[in-house]
Design brief:
Layout lengths: L16 E8 L7 E7 L6 E10 L2 H8 L8 E2 L4 E8 L11 E4 L9 H4 L10 H4 L10 E3 L2 E3 L11 E5 L3 E4 L5 H4 L2 H15 L7 E5 L3 H12 L4 E6 L2 H10 L3 E4 L6 H9 L3 E6 L4 H9 L1 E9 L13 H6 L3 E4 L7 H13 L9 E4 L4 H10 L4 E5 L3
Parallel strand pairs: 11-12, 11-14, 12-13, 14-15, 15-16, 17-18
Antiparallel strand pairs: 1-2, 1-4, 2-7, 3-5, 3-9, 3-18, 5-6, 6-10, 7-8
Helix pairs in contact: 5-6, 6-7
Length: 383
């Protein structure tokens, strides 16, 4: 059963936008593309005309019920677009500005935010409840409230977001490519730079080369890793990993001893292992692949209650670490400008990762994602 949530209420506002959106009504069911109403933004919010939005594994987890959110709901949490309207108190963006959207809101005032860890903000439980910060929603259909997904909901032609999650960008940049910056790219980049603090000359293994894993690969290359070993079950994902900077690949099909294959390359494990799948089996593998004195960084979203096993004595004697990385330990005001600079300089490559689709093809995109498709499906909205 879904988590209990406060009863969603509509805001008493006028001038709603009509928008086509993909609505989730049940777990494991196909999304329904239909017309909904999008309210104007409340104080501290921004309404965005979406240009593009990526289809992420976290959306798949919500769709399938692995991680449950209140229904009905509009999914989608990585995207970019053009500001349509701003709420009271919003000054950093204006209508017509181009923005990339960060999926995780933060208050800026709690203990975690004050100590430079806004990814762990203590005051955003409302996002998990499927509402905006005031406990109401901005989406409805024929007067029936529809929940938000992490305070975002980008599988829609218009979306209302917390103002601090709308990052202004130069109008010359591709909004389609920037649409995956706020989740897949930032999560991979942040895991390398912020969580693992990878140093030039170190060795890396990436277990799982989907949208996030591929960005771990290219971020490790940008950070100067000496070798980068990509591990996946899909040949296409490994081909993309080589294109993004992997020096070696391991095709982890049945019968392949991944530990032995990586030992052949490194003589042992690697300094940093990034797990970007989220299953107990791959988490356990990642720990095994970590060298003495090295670190395993967990990025993939495991199901609630999942248990992974490891040998604590070996962990202790080898001084290995296992750490979690939530949204790449993001510091939005620091990390987004860095990523945008890298992108403008041509050092951060996004185009090879993208497969363009329409909103009407979104269910096909989820089927491809579940089957192990390597490219990121991105819904491109009509301008």
């Amino acid at each position: 059963m879904p988590r209990a949530a406060p009863q969603a209420k509509l805001t008493a506002m006028s001038e709603r936008r009509r928008a086509r959106a993909a609505v989730q009504y049940g777990y494991g069911e196909r999304l329904v593309v239909e017309t909904v109403d999008i309210d104007p933004p409340a104080p501290g919010e921004v309404r965005v005309k979406m240009a593009a939005t990526g289809v992420c594994h976290s959306d798949l987890h919500a769709l399938s019920g692995v991680h449950r959110y209140p229904l009905p709901c509009v999914l989608g949490h990585e995207g970019a677009g053009v500001v349509d309207e701003v709420g009271d108190g919003v000054t950093h963006v204006l209508p017509g500005d181009h923005v990339v959207l960060s999926w995780l809101p933060y208050c800026g005032e709690c203990r975690m935010c004050a100590t430079g860890r806004p990814a762990l903000c203590e005051n955003v439980a409302w996002a998990e409840a499927g509402t905006m910060a005031d406990g109401t929603v901005r989406i409805s259909r024929e007067g029936v409230p529809i929940h938000h997904f992490t305070g975002q909901s980008f599988f829609s032609e218009f979306a209302v977001v917390p103002a601090q999650t709308a990052i202004p960008v130069d109008k010359s940049l591709s909004l389609v490519e920037l649409s995956i910056l706020g989740c897949a790219v930032m999560t991979g980049f942040g895991a390398v730079v912020n969580t693992a603090q990878l140093r030039a000359g170190q060795t890396v293994t990436v277990v799982g080369c989907g949208g996030v894993g591929l960005n771990v690969v290219q971020s490790a290359a940008l950070a100067g890793a000496r070798s980068i070993i990509a591990v996946d079950t899909v040949v296409g994902a490994l081909d993309l990993a080589r294109d993004m900077g992997a020096t070696h690949t391991v095709h982890a099909i049945n019968g392949v001893d991944v530990v032995a294959a990586i030992a052949d390359v490194t003589g042992g494990g690697t300094d940093h292992v990034f797990e970007a799948v989220g299953s107990p089996r791959t988490i356990e593998l990642a720990v095994q692949l970590t060298a003495r004195g090295g670190q395993t960084t967990l990025i993939g979203m495991a199901p609630e209650g999942a248990i992974a096993h490891f040998d604590p004595l070996t962990l202790l004697m080898d001084e290995r670490k296992i750490v979690g990385s939530w949204y790449g330990s993001i510091r939005p005001t620091v990390d987004f400008p860095v990523l945008l600079d890298l992108y403008e300089q041509g050092k951060l490559r996004i185009s090879p990762l993208i497969r363009r689709i329409t909103l009407d093809e979104i269910n096909d995109a989820f089927e491809l994602l579940e089957a192990g498709g390597s490219a990121r499906s991105v819904v491109v909205f009509e301008s």
